[in-house]
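Lab channel / #folding
Pinned by the channel admin:
"Please post every new chain as: sequence first, then the structure tokens as a reply. Keep commentary short and put observations after the output so the thread stays searchable."

First post following the new format, from NK:
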Amino acid sequence: MSKQIVKYHNNFNRLALNELSSLEQNVLFEILYRIKEQGEKKFKFTTEQIAAMIDKNMTNRELLNLATSLGKKVLGVCYIVIEPNATKYTMLFDQLIIKDDENGNLIDIELSLSRSFEYLLNNLFGNFTSFELLEFKSIQSKYAKTIYRNLKEHKITGVWEVEWQELLRLLCVEKNIKNPTTQYIHNYILKPAIKELTTSGNLFQQSFQNLTYKKTYKAIDREQRLKKDSTKRGGRKIDKIIFTFTPEKMPEKSDRAILHNAKAKIQSRGKNVIMQIRDK
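Reply from TO:
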């Protein structure tokens, strides 16, 4: 059986998807895998197809609840696409229809791609993230899933440097947890995620060898330093988190040339898309 590879534009990693549960993320990314490069705008998934995406037994009504929850959360992800001479406010899907019968049983799901999202899914030109669907689905923590995707974006360099506040946004920390402390985030989100991604025997363990992270802090001016020294405890503010791991082998020379030419093609066409998130 050939590997099922999920592939999309790197800008898709800027979307904050962690309001979705781990199971909902599994379904979403399998849908992305199935609709990629299909040359269609509208897609339909039957109850049987949705059930096959889930590695657990669920009743039809549970499938309906899952689909409904996923639909509400995905349609709540509104983002801004900035292109030359245009700013677009759009969503992943133009429409998402969940059909059920009179007994509350799921019949099927119909969805249509927005034009901007189709660009992120199909027009990659070397600027993309890719990973095995089975690997992704085997990750239990929804926080580890988001870290996994971003590490895959940086698999050639082995370094993902992200601002602290941006990391919290991507992980939807404040939406998922009420008043989280920095210590809580490290002890119950980041450290467990690192442990899961490096546990021996996991499908993805070989992807991130020697994975670790460190914190960098914002500079403290003289006035702040004096104020800090006058108290027993005055924690410095975290500036960035830097994840590091053993990088994957570089592509062959011919492959690197293809990537270089592809990136040059994007620049010449003026298609550098900058994505910013706007929560509804």
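NK: The radius of gyration is 21 Å.
TO: also worth noting, Residues 262-280 have pLDDT under 50 and may be disordered.
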